[in-house]
Amino acid sequence: MAKKENGALAKRVEADLPAKLTPADIKKYICPKADDAEIFMFINHCVANQLDPYRRDAYLIKYDSNKPASMVTNYRIFLERSAEFPDYNGMQSGVIVTKGHEVIEREGAIVLTGETLFGGWCKVYRKGREHPTVVKVMMSEYLQTKWKDGKRVPQAKWKTSPATMIRKTAVGQGHHDAYPGPFSEMYTDAELPTGGADLPETPIHRNGETVVETAEVSEGQYEEAEPENVVPKCETCDTELTVENVVYCEEQDMEAMTCFKCLGVSEEEKKPEETPEQPEEDTRLPTKRRRLRALVGRLGTLIEDKKHAQEIAMAAKIKVSGCVPEKKLEELTMDQLEKIEVLLEERIHAAEEENAKA
């Protein structure tokens, strides 16, 4: 159970954590560019998961004014908390590389000359379990990029340390799967978009003794808007590319933009695959879904029963959507998510009152 697994942790995290996480201080010391709603969500996230942002357990990163801020958990939290679980029996992790037709899984983050980095892997061992929890992730699914000079390029650490980042992604995912309760709402900077922000490690002392470093995106790291007037050119012969040519290169996941002539592509192959248009998703939805999952985790901690908390959330989804079996969070509208949020907050309030009386 989550309470047992986080028992030692509760002694380390300050009891007055909710009191010292004020909106004014979060805006001043953690993320000056976040709006009030994002700060509110971040405070609730930290309290529910016992994360102290002043100790650099968590970061709130506003990497784009048009997108929700990312709530990132420090990578070391996965290692520290796992070590405190009584049944934790270590982990192994590394990278997946290809060389010709050979696929190699190597421990660590080393990619040799002539090899291509394909992904990362992690094995988490728990005492009393016959098999470890094994996770393998693909580089193409997590690589963070930005627009530069008319094309997509790896961003920040994904450019300088791709092997380290994809291994970190696998470690985070491995611990999510091995301990879904304690880590269900925690994601590293390798799993969430950060705009290339550097994450400072120096603790924040609000008495002015320590220089404050916010996890802000440095100038020049913001993702550039896709250029409107720059015509992409073939990197082989320098001729201008048509829209169909660019679409073809992106569909083939080609690293270099190349014209049809240099590629030797036939007229039939030039036609892009037709895909149905997808409605644009409300940018607030991912943040609201994270909020609901955090509330379920908080409720499970209060009632000391994660499974029952999930059953309560399931009942709330069925009540709001009117569907049996219940819909997934990704299928619900913002209005439905907000109604579920109200129901969960009512149950949490009731549980807190019951605990106070006990």
Strand content: 5-15%
Separation of the first and last Cα atoms? 20 Å
Q: Helicity, in percent?
A: 40-55%
Number of domains: 4
The quaternary organization reads as single chain
Determine the structural class based on helices, strands and strand pairing: alpha+beta
Q: Tell me the series of helices and strands, N- to C-terminal.
A: HHHHHEEHEEEEHEEHHHHHHHH
What is the tally of helical segments? 15
Strand order of the largest sheet: 4-3-5-6
The radius of gyration computed from the alpha-carbon positions, rounded to a whole number of angstroms, is 23 Å
How many E strands? 8
pLDDT averaged over residues:
77
- Unreliable segments (pLDDT under 50, ≥5 consecutive)? 1-14, 208-212, 217-229
Shape: globular
Largest sheet: 4 strands, antiparallel
Briefly characterize the structure.
The protein has 358 residues and is α+β, with helices and mostly antiparallel strands. The chain has helices at residues 2-5, 7-12, 17-20, 23-30, 36-48, 75-84, 139-142, 157-160, 162-178, 180-183, 243-251, 260-263, 285-303, 306-321, 334-357, and strands at 58-61, 70-73, 88-99, 102-107, 116-126, 133-138, 145-148, 151-154.
Q: Which short descriptors sum up this protein?
A:
two-stranded antiparallel ribbon, disordered N terminus, alpha+beta, four-stranded antiparallel beta sheet, 358 residues
